[in-house]
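Reopening this ticket.

The earlier resolution said the output was attached, but the attachment link was broken on my side. Pasting everything inline this time so it's all in one place.
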Amino acid sequence: MALPIPASGFDAIPTRDRLLKAAQEEILDAGFFAASTDRIVQRAGASKQTLYSHFPSKERLFQEVLLLTVAEAIGPAPPAVDMLGLEDALRVHARWAEAASSQPANLELYRANIAAATRFPDLAAELHRLRSQPTSLVDLLVREQRDGRLPSIAPERLFSWCGLLAIGGPRQFLGLDPTPAEHQARLNGLLQMFLGGWREPLPEAPALSTPPPQDACPSRAAPPAGKGGRLSPDRWTDMLRCAARRFCEAGFRQTSVEEIAGLSGISKMTIYKHCGNKQGLFAAALDRAVDDLLDQRAPLPDAPDIGAALVEIALEQDRLAQSEAHVQLMRLLVTEAPTQAAIVQRAWLRLIAPPREALAVRLDQWRAQGAIAVPDCMVAAEQFLLLAGRGNRRLTDRIVWDEAEAAQHAREVAAIAYR
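Inline output:
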């Protein structure tokens, strides 16, 4: 979290540093989009003229604040694990990654970093690299590769995958804390991938039956019908898409129902009648955005070879995760989680449920054939799709799509899971 400015000696702090600290507190308290220069100068005991004499623009001030916050919020140094065995090292590193990412300061920083990504993509990419510095685990992974116990994948990539699986992708940032049983299942999935893949049984991890696919959240709602046909389903759908785009651009607090009404040509009264309030509109817009993304999904491939099928599944997941609509929606969900938790959690669970459950059923079939030894097919499916879609990386970093690189990434994800 932001370090408070001591009451004593306040005036002794250089003006530029006071402004940076005040801006840092404002961004972490109010959010990136809603941060106000009026409140910043008030916090710092300065004037706007003084602010702009030190920082030529609000954007420049925010850039420097985010760089400053990275240095303060990284948290305790990662533990040295290079002298441990691989399993013990993975357990230690997973505990550290989970604890570090759950610190309030890191959660706040991450959300500010994501909000900044659309406005300052180069800065967001640099912040991502600063927060992703490798540890001694990389040295251990190199040795394991040299001894033939891990596939030939860049050690830095394996390191990032370990951290990603440890924290459950965006779950922590969305406020979806695991139960003890879910936490253990997630750790088991991580260990199995790194200690031998899905073909190697994980000791002391009994196989769990995979339930038939079912909606994690309510199905999509039918659009309202206007009296006398005045409001067609198509117009309502267009309004929800317009609202989703605007929420993604400006965030929940900075978007008004009046603005959506003006952009869509549907009266504010009509929107309130069908949505109840702004939160209802937000939920409906997210549902529409999720439905549009799910409509783009193709059925799982029927390739007879498991390895080839997993490569196809990974490539398709990566391609969908690369879409601008998916990236913008995920950024919105994470940044709005502190104040709109129930709504964003529901949207995310609706987004991941169909592909996760379809792959879990396929894994269950392969397990019944004796081809894999996955203890929990639902967890394994979510973790595989998480790696295939590159986890949280697209939220704060730019990835230029390259077909050859994407195909190689898909092969590597399939290799760590099934080898």
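Reporter confirms the inline version is readable. The domain at 227-295 is CATH 1.10.10.60 (Arc Repressor Mutant, subunit A). The mean pLDDT is 85.
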